[in-house]
Amino acid sequence: SSPHSKLRKNGSGNARSVFIMGTSKNSPASISDTSSASCCCISNSSDKCCSYSAFHSFRFSRLSVCCADAKTGKQLWDVELLDDIKSFDCDKSLVVVHGYTDVSNPIWKCVAYDIEDGNQLWVLDCPVSKYKPVFVKNACILTTNEGEPIIVDQTSGNVLYRNNVKGYIAIKGFEDSVMFVSSDYKQAVYFSLIDNSHWSASL
After folding, report:
1. Average pLDDT of adjacent 10-residue blocks, the chain of 203 residues
2. Beta carbons within 8 Å of 67's beta carbon, 6+ residues apart
């Protein structure tokens, strides 16, 4: 658990589904209650299926990352985020971009959690952009708050590559490469994770 989150474990079992849920102070949200979901996505990684439901409502006082066994629906753990969740996705780990929404200077942080037990794996030591992470094999691809591509090991958080070219967004991962687009969406860049080669094209 970090200063920005609180971890609660509710049982044992194999984690198969992950939910982003909102709960009130006095009434915890039900795992099956997705009626207030504002977005949902599904990501498959080997034997894991991760499903997210993000709740945004003034009647909720907090947001939690909740993990349940997909076969039984039993909640295994949940992590309460003490600030705003901006984006999220999962592969071998659950990666969440969160922070405080300041219109003049938004500050977004990146944290990763172990899907099996909810323990925090790593925190990126630089501010990131609001866009959700992209995964290629064991790599998690993000961009900094200035749009600099940064690639980290999604299990350890070790930085594998960083480029000081600014103004890009990671949008799609392929088998051994990732696609970035410029923030004005006028240029696409394909970057190889094998030899760091790249090429670009105008859009």
Report:
1. 63 52 39 34 40 42 67 75 81 86 76 88 93 93 94 94 93 93 94 90 92
2. 15, 17, 18, 19, 75, 76, 77, 78, 115, 118
Report pLDDT for 178: 95
Residue 119 sits at φ, ψ, to 5 deg, of: -70, 145
Mind spelling out the 3-state secondary structure of 99-157?
A: EECCCCCCEEEEEEECCCCCCEEEECCCCECCCCCEEECCEEEEEECCCCEEEEECCCC
Q: Whole-prediction pTM value? A: 0.74
Rounded CA separation 108/81 (Å) = 13
State residue 18's pLDDT score: 53
C-alpha distances in Å from residue 154, one per residue of 29, 134, 201: 29, 10, 28
C-alpha gyration radius of the chain:
17
| Contact of 170 with 180, CB cutoff 8 Å | yes
Kindly give, in sequence order, each residue whose CB lies less than 8 Å from that of residue 173, ignoring residues fewer than 6 positions away. 134, 135, 136, 141, 179
Distance (Å, rounded) from C-alpha 120 to C-alpha 157?
Answer: 11
In this structure, are residues 77 and 67 in contact, taking their beta carbons and an 8 Å threshold? yes
Report residue 30 as tokens. Answer: 């039900």
**pLDDT at res. 160:** 94
